[in-house]
Each structure stands twice: as structure tokens, then as C-alpha cells.
Amino acid sequence: MSLPLLEHLTVLIPKTPSNIFATISSSSSSSSSSTTTRRALSLSALSSTFTLFFVSNSSSKAATPEFSEVEGSGGVKVLDLRVGDGEVPVNGDQVAVHYYGRLAAKQGWLFDSTYGHKDEMGEPIPFVFILGSGRVISGIETAVRSMKVGGIRRVIIPPSQGYQNTSQEPLPPNFFDRQRLFTTIFNPTRLANGEGSTLGTLVFDIELVSLRHQ
Fold this sequence. Notes:
Shape: globular
Structural class: alpha+beta
Strand content: 25-35%
Number of strands: 9
Distance between the termini: 33 Å
Order of helices and strands: EHEEEEEEHEHHHE
Mean pLDDT: 79
């Protein structure tokens, strides 16, 4: 079954983005016989009914959901779209997540999604990693560390907590997507022009699917 990938996402980026927020609209979901499909649809439905904006300080102060900055995170901000009812992971746990990853500097370009990674049965494959291993970018570890299984969270990751090199995960499986991602984040000319504070800003929608104690 094909899943909608942020079909209704609208992104507005002025020259100097200074605030990132999401506007919530109503959504409905239908039941499915597949547990994996139900999880996929839940995140897809929530994500596709959120409108993501990058706006300047001059924008009107409409009522919006409020992100909270994770203490000691280096600027990672989170907004819970759904609070889970399962366990909270700790360092050393193996966690499985589904995600949508977007790059702010490319007008909210969706550079990767686990729903595009399919097994032989056509089911989406979650991204699995050991929490605290340093294998993935810091912003994702920070966000997942305080989630409960079953939860869905939107995360704004500043460049300092995002990709620091081209080997950190998660990585888009497509070579051209990886190339576009990293040539934007590590663009030497734009970095020299002082744009480093915005080039690597990431927005992830993350669902914590499961965890396993090691």
C-alpha cells in the first residue's frame, strides 16, 4: 500500500528564518489489518496534516503549537504530536523508529523517509540503532531519549546537533539524495558567507516504534 508522503506540506522560507512552527489541522485515520501499516499510516496522517512554516519575526503572532527546547541539548526543540504509552529508552537500548527527514535550507525538502525503505513484502522498514552509540546525529538521539514507545514527535535540530560529517546516520539510501543533502549542508562558499547557522537545520518527524533492552 503506498503511503502519502507529506502531500499537503507547504513551506515558506524568507531570507532569514527565525522561527519554526507547525499549524495543526484535523485529520482522520482508518483501521488496517497490518500493525506495521497502522503505524505507518498514523505518522503519515499526522505529518500530512501539518503545515510547516519558516517565518520571520515580522509574521503575525497566530496561535501555534509550542516547541520546547530539550534542556542541555544544544538547541534541539521538540513538539509531541502523540505521546506514547510504552517504555522510555535508556542508553544501550536498541530502538526502532520511523521518520520523515526534511532540510530547512531546501524549502523543507524531504530528503529521506523510512516509509521509502521497503522489505521483500513491501512493508516499510524502521531505522534501528543503539541509543547512545554515537552512530546517529545527536539531535535524533536527544529526541528519542525522552520519548515513550508509540509516541510521535516533531524535532527541530540545529546544525550543531545535526550532520557533522557524511558518515553519520540516518543516511538517504539514494546516492543523489545524499549528495544533494551534504553539498547543501557543507557548502564551503555559503559557510564562508556566514550561513552555517541555517544550512544544516533539520526537521524530523519521529515515531518510536519499539525498543529492546540489550
